[in-house]
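Working notes for the structural subgroup meeting. M.R. asked for a predicted model of this chain before we commit to crystallization trials. I am recording the input and output together here so anyone reviewing the notebook later can reproduce the run.

Input as submitted:
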Amino acid sequence: MAIDLFDGLNAGCVGTGAGGAPGDAERPAARPAPAREACEVEMTKVKVEAGPFVFDAVLEEAKAPRTCAAIKAALPFESHFVHVRWSGEGVWVPLGERDFGVTYENHTSYPAPGQMILYPGGISETEILLAYGGVHFASKMGQLAGNHFLTITSQLEKLHELGTQCLWHGAQALKITLAEA
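Returned structure, recorded in token form:
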């Protein structure tokens, strides 16, 4: 039995093939998967200005559509990054009781460097976090999970400088805007 290693990439597409997982031999064959380009979702490009740095980024609309829609509605978004207290190598934007009207989707407690997540509130305040190194997302209440909605696509090597700038020099201005076409 052939295993389609790319089948999981089509998870959000209608009409993808059978999973190809072991033990699926008795499962009836599904329609063939659509062409890969038919499943690609155009990603909205944004600009993230953080302290003295400017990063290109994309919104993860295929994986977190409700969160991305809420963030797009809030653009341009302006605030300040401060260094995290419990989560490791990350910077965050405390947002108090702000309600983006979303629940969990594409959530993680371990964002990779360059991934931005939104914690929609609950046991801790609403917040946005950007990982610049190893992060285990948490608050004084314990482990949290946030919706991965944005990925930095340029100057990843500058993320650590941003993190240490926040740690040693305090809050850094943050502005997220739609990228110019």
